[in-house]
């Protein structure tokens, strides 16, 4: 099970093969005994391990190794904070120091071996935690925290030191947080707040501060896991644990790099199964950001397009800034499930309503036109000349009396409306005060989401500080953009988790008959010829043109007669990557003489370019259709990934592609096509007929199965172009390129 380093492992032949090939990270081969039902066809786990972290966050006893009360020294301040934290959680604290009899009046043990009882958690205030790990393991300590820096974040030498630390922890029964972590897990959390809480995971402690300070606005936080360099415990461990906690309403993450992509997706899958939203800032969208993150945590940041696609695939809501992280997490933690997806915008200014509605619609929110009956109802209190179709403009004056609440209730009562957003661009007492109070009162009596954007740059107004922030039912924002981002995430999350079916539950456990045929074609460490690559596709039921591989001009003429004119001829060899650039493709050949001449020309060019051939392909010519590309690559974080996009020369010019991480089903294959900017080509443009999208989806799913089953032996696969024929006629792989591992 991923993320665990304890217990025994029952060897499975498929799993042993995959580990030997380097497919699985070391963390994946530890944990309790696994059976074939726990593994997919490539031998990778299908379920997230959920570590028991109760005794980490709520220990009964704590040891502080290197404790000090020497004033002015950093360790004294840390020790004092840990003593206060232990008192808050009801833990007994034991200082450990070889030369002190007591620390802050608490009796001090000279070593770990001399502790008066077995402890749940040890906090290491030492520069080199490695010598202490063995002592802690012998004392059967369950958890340790290493603050020390100078490990993987510093380069190769530090990475080697971190590997030694991880090896010492491995199999010891001890779980380690850090190194290069901090005191965030031991912060003082407010215990006077109610409702669902946010659990926070960060690889940089300072970046979690904006979310932590949400407590000052009345939003509850339950945990903070500062994972640091993740030599052992990692983001996915805490993600799985928090997803199972009943008090957690949302999980907020700041991620610089992922230690294990598969473990992260399994943890995200567990959160999706539980319906717990995960909101993440992931550093590394740019080369500079990725490089800086790697220097900070020593992690792989991963190709950002793959990271982004994998997160969306498993329901992780990725946001760009810490302000979005705090606002989106706060909304998702506290808002109830929507009864409808329609958004109604209500304001005291027509300009404000129109502006907000434009932004919301552009972001993909649905603003339904209110029914004629509903508009007539609203016009009882709003002048006839004002628009109430949505957005609803009340003109200002009705909010100052009894009509204001009637309007809000009427909008909330509309069955199309699941969210009401009221942008208040600035304080305008007494109207803004009365409007804020009416919104709060209405929110208390409805299950629907009520959002307010308080646009004042001051933020000290009573209507904001007391009325709006004092409500646990109104979601209050300071900017239009953050409100729209959060509401879109809220609706997307509940749409995603409604009826959620984990792709891991549907993942194949045993190899298909296609796998056995394909394995015979693989050549470790080599590139396959086009002919061999197409045989690989055939093994998985992917259609290729009628074609024959020939080694003479006479055989080429006979093959052309069997394939049927016109034909395409191509040089075929394992070392040929770009046939067109070398002139090794001839198209539209319609006679025997053209075929003979083409054969001689292709072999002459190959001889001149010193490109060895296994023959020349004589292929059926397929002209009418949409050129697509479907491929497989190996991502260092997530393993095999599947790509689909516009093919032919467009793939290099437009780079219009979508990515998914197997396993996935038909819904995700269709979603990949929806993600493409050029998807209109598949629908038929300029008189062209609609393409056979169903056939394209089927090819993507067959390639996904191929990617899973051959993950240990296939490095790369490109089908380009895949010609998608008109609807009902299928799709044909005109060219293929494959590299074995």
Automatic annotation (TrEMBL):
Any matching Pfam family: Succ_CoA_lig
Domain (ATP-grasp) ranges: 534-572
Gene3D superfamilies: ATP-grasp fold, A domain, ATP-grasp fold, B domain, NAD(P)-binding Rossmann-like Domain, Succinyl-CoA synthetase domains
Matches recorded under InterPro entries: ATP-grasp, ATP_grasp_subdomain_1, CoA-bd, NAD(P)-bd_dom_sf, Succ_CoA_lig_flav_dom, Succinyl-CoA_synth-like
Keywords annotated in UniProt: ATP-binding, Nucleotide-binding
Entry protein name: CoA-binding protein
């Amino acid at each position: 099970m991923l993320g665990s380093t304890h217990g025994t492992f029952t060897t499975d032949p498929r799993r042993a093969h995959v580990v030997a090939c380097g497919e699985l990270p070391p963390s994946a081969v530890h944990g309790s005994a696994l059976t074939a039902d726990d593994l997919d066809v490539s031998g990778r786990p299908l379920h997230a391990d959920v570590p028991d972290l109760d005794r980490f966050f709520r220990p009964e006893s704590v040891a502080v190794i290197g404790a000090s009360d020497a004033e002015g020294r950093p360790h004294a301040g840390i020790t004092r904070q840990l003593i206060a934290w232990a008192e808050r959680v009801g833990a007994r604290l034991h200082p450990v120091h070889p030369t002190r009899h007591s620390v802050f009046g608490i009796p001090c043990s000279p070593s770990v071996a001399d502790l008066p009882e077995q402890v749940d958690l040890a906090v290491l205030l030492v520069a080199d935690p490695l010598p202490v790990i063995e002592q802690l393991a012998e004392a059967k300590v369950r958890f340790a925290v290493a603050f020390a820096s100078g490990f993987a974040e510093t380069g190769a030498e530090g990475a080697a030191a971190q590997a030694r630390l991880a090896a010492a922890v491995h199999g010891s029964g001890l779980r380690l947080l850090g190194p290069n972590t901090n005191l965030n897990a031991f912060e003082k959390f407010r215990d006077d707040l109610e409702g669902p809480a946010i659990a926070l995971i960060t690889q940089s402690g300072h970046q979690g501060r904006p979310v932590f300070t949400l407590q000052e606005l009345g939003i509850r936080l339950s945990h903070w896991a500062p994972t640091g360099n993740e030599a052992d415990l990692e983001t996915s461990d805490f993600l799985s644990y928090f997803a199972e906690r009943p008090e957690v309403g949302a999980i907020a993450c700041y991620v610089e790099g992922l230690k294990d992509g598969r473990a992260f997706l399994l943890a995200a899958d567990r959160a999706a199964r539980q319906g717990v939203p995960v909101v993440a800032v992931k550093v590394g969208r740019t080369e500079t950001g990725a490089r800086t993150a790697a220097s900070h945590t020593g992690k792989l940041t991963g190709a950002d397009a793959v990271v982004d696609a994998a997160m969306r695939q498993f329901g992780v809501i990725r946001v760009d800034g810490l302000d979005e992280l705090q606002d989106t997490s706060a909304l998702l933690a506290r808002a109830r499930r929507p009864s409808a997806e329609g958004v109604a915008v209500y304001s005291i200014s027509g300009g404000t309503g129109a502006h907000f509605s434009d932004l919301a619609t552009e972001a993909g929110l649905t603003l339904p036109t209110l029914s004629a009956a509903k508009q007539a109802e609203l016009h009882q209190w709003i002048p006839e000349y004002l628009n109430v179709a949505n957005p609803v403009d009340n003109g200002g004056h009705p909010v100052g009396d009894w009509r204001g609440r009637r309007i809000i209730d009427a909008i909330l009562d509309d069955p199309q409306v699941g969210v009401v957003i009221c942008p208040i661009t600035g304080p305008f007492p007494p109207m803004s005060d009365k409007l804020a109070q009416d919104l709060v009162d209405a929110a208390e009596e409805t299950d629907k989401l009520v959002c307010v954007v308080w646009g004042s740059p001051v933020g000290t107004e009573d209507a904001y500080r007391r009325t709006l922030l004092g409500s646990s039912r109104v979601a209050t924002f300071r900017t239009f953009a953050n409100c729209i981002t959060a509401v879109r995430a809220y609706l997307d999350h509940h749409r995603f988790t409604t009826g959620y079916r984990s792709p891991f539950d549907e993942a194949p456990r045993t190899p298909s008959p296609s796998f056995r045929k394909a394995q015979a074609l693989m050549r470790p460490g080599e590139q396959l010829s086009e002919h061999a690559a197409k045989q690989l596709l055939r093994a998985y039921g992917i259609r290729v043109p009628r074609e024959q591989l020939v080694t003479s001009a006479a055989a080429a003429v006979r093959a052309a007669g069997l394939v049927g004119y016109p034909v395409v001829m191509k040089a075929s060899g394992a070392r040929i990557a770009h046939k067109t650039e070398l002139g090794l493709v001839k198209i539209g050949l319609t006679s025997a003489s053209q075929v003979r001449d083409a054969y001689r020309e292709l072999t002459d060019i190959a001889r001149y370019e010193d490109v060895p051939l296994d023959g020349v392909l004589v292929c059926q010519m397929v002209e009418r259709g949409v050129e697509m590309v479907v491929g497989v690559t190996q991502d260092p974080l997530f393993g095999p990934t599947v790509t689909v996009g516009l093919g032919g020369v467009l793939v290099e010019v437009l780079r219009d592609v979508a990515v998914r991480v197997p396993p996935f089903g038909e819904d995700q294959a269709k979603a990949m096509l929806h993600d493409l900017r050029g998807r209109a080509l598949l629908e038929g443009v300029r008189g062209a007929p609609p393409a056979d999208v169903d056939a394209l989806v089927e090819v993507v799913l067959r390639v996904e199965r191929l990617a899973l089953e051959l993950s240990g032996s296939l490095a790369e696969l490109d089908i380009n172009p895949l010609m998608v024929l008109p609807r009902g006629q299928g799709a044909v792989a005109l060219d293929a390129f494959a590299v074995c591992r």
